[in-house]
Amino acid sequence: MLLNSKGLALVLAASVAIIIGASLLLIPDLPAYVFWLIPIICFGTGYILINVVLEFLFFKELRNIYEMFERIRNNDLATLKPKRTYGHSSLNQIQQEIYSYAHVKQSEIEELKQMAKFRRQFLADVSHELKTPIFAAQGFVHTLLDGAIDDKSIRMKFLKKAAKNLDGLDALVQDLLTVSHMEAGDITMQFEPTNICEVVDEIFDQLEERAAKKGIGLKLVSDKDKILVLADNQRIHQVFINLISNAIKYSDENGDVIVTLIQKKDKLDITVKDNGIGIPPEHLNRVFERFYRVDKSRSKAQGGTGLGLSIVKHIVEAHLSEIKVVSNVGEGSSFSFELELYQAE
């Protein structure tokens, strides 16, 4: 900054002293010492006052603004903070506008970095999840083509394994499409009166055989046989399928999976509880992320696409609710959310 407060104060104080000294010449019969004493006093006091005023009200604020521009130019926005100022209101407003602009840009930069990180992680996860069934099916098919097809027992065994991996690949692609459509807002929920008790009973019937293999009991706790909620029937089926399947999958043998329905004014509180392995506290805030697995080795052995809870989260949020999880290691997990009760006109 070429011009500072001291230089400008020196020029202005000297100008004032000269003008006052010249004005004294118009007054007759003044002692000689007055013509040099008063200009000196005016120069000294004027310099001090003008320097303080310019520095405090203008130049200090201008330096802060200049520093903000330098940080913006160097993309150093993380450490940019508003400073308490006492300068001219216009300069204060300019400084606040600059800070607000920098704050918004910093937020956008952080969001872009987070999205880029998330995108890289997502691509890595998708590649890994797709690679496993593709390579497995490819291995079985090539083994058959290399001559194993002539052995009937091996042929049927390998064809079944290849089909199982391709079925898993199809399920993964379908779940990926579902999540992508939901995040893009391409799926519209068709809200209609839905008997949630009937939905749970249907899913119990569907998963009964799987639960029986582990000796797990499926229980519905409700004070009514018919509770109508306003929901998308198909999507709510997906929610319960994923939650109850996970509860069976990660429960110990001879346990219970309990679905509890409690009416609260205009809402229905829904909880799906198991007494399985539980989720460690450090994983609770990430279980709804795509492809996130608490125990990767056990999750792979149990099957699944790794997208179930992510789909549940999107569907529940589309119903203007929130999915919550409470879990203790070795004691089980509880997933809960609310749905709006249907009020007949």
UniProtKB/TrEMBL annotation:
It catalyses: ATP + protein L-histidine = ADP + protein N-phospho-L-histidine. Keywords: Kinase, Membrane, Phosphoprotein, Transferase, Transmembrane, Transmembrane helix, Two-component regulatory system. The chain crosses the membrane at residues 7-27, 33-59. GO terms for biological process: cellular response to phosphate starvation. CDD domains: HATPase, HisKA. Its EC number is 2.7.13.3. One of its GO terms (cellular component) is plasma membrane. GO terms for molecular function: phosphoprotein phosphatase activity; phosphorelay sensor kinase activity. The keyword Transmembrane helix applies. Residues 125-343 form the Histidine kinase domain. InterPro entries: BphY/WalK/GraS-like (IPR050351), HATPase_C_sf (IPR036890), HATPase_dom (IPR003594), His_kinase_dom (IPR005467), HisK_dim/P_dom (IPR003661), HisK_dim/P_sf (IPR036097), Sig_transdc_His_kin-like_C (IPR004358). This is histidine kinase.
